[in-house]
Amino acid sequence: MRGWFCLCCASPRRAEVVTGSFGARMDNQQVRDPVLLQPGPYADVDASLRAMAGAAEGFGHAAIGGVHGHVYHVTSLADKGDGTLREACRQQEPLWIIFELSGTIMLSSPIRVSSYKTIDGRGHKVKLSGNGLQLRECEHIIICNLEFEGGRGHDVDGIQLKPKTRNVWIDRCTLSDYDDGLIDITRQSTNVTISRCHFHHHDKTMLISADPKHVDDRCIQVTIHHCFFDGTRQRHPRLRFGKVHLYNNYTRNWGIYAVCASVEAQILSQSNIYQAGSKKTAFEYYTEKAADKEETASGSLRSEGDLFLNGAQGKPCNPFGVFAPQEFYPTWTLEPASEALLHKIQLIAGWQKLQLPPDL
Q1: Which CATH number fits the domain that encloses residue 144?
Q2: How far, in Å, CA of 222 to CA of 239, rounded?
Q3: Range of the domain at 135
Q4: Which of 152, 143, 198 is nearest to 178 (CA)?
Q5: pLDDT tens profile 235-251
Q6: CA-CA to 136 of 20 to 30 Å: which in 102, 217, 219, 305?
């Protein structure tokens, strides 16, 4: 595990709002500190258009998106029709989808994303509103550098994975204010990495497995790293049955708990930062009965190298019952939980002002 970090994509806009000393504003000299600007796990993914394919760390490492397809140019911000994102996502062949304009796409219904697609927001600022993306029984999806805000309606998530979706990487997205979840992963969806995302102004942030009756969700495997959970109320994530590796995330000012391990969950929390507001409980355990078991059970959580601030309390539960990630992927980039990491995550998480790389 390498102890370095990626700030190659930090934009001046984000640098202006970073704070130091666990709350004090950082000046420009601090932002340019070489310690903060060390290369990291994704230092090369913006070198060329398709360099993201197969580059994710963690359980989503196999996701290749539309690497073997043509480039599709989104030329319209309309909900549907020629040149729209919806039209691109419905195509059955692999596509690398890029945008020719910035703005908001108001969705009247979710966009169904078919297999082998990359939705690449680099080079523009594109926001999805009104509804979100649905990944249903598909595979090899990459979603990068988009904003999701203001989804309305029953079961409307920013990004919804169900059922049986696999090999997904969600990177550098900003998500807020949906009526249901920001990212929900359920019904045997697996092999997912969520990295460098910013979550804010929301209640039920991320649900992984929706019901104790869904015992087939024991297959779920998700990695979440270098994400910023910024005052969101709960579910960072809430997990049933599956395996989740959390590392180098920054979660602050939650409203109920930070992370919840429900029935048969296995969570490894590694070098994360938990900064409490008025609620101090970082780790919660909900007891439920799996449909194929007689006894109720909660989940297991192992905490390694986590940093607890402002009175945050994180009590592990059955730590020896948690999986070892090296059994599933050989390396991941890990940095000690520290004030420097806290600043870095605020810089790099979420939508970034980036140039669209060349298609070499």
Answers
A1: 2.160.20.10
A2: 10
A3: 12-348
A4: 152
A5: 999 999 999 999 999 99
A6: 102
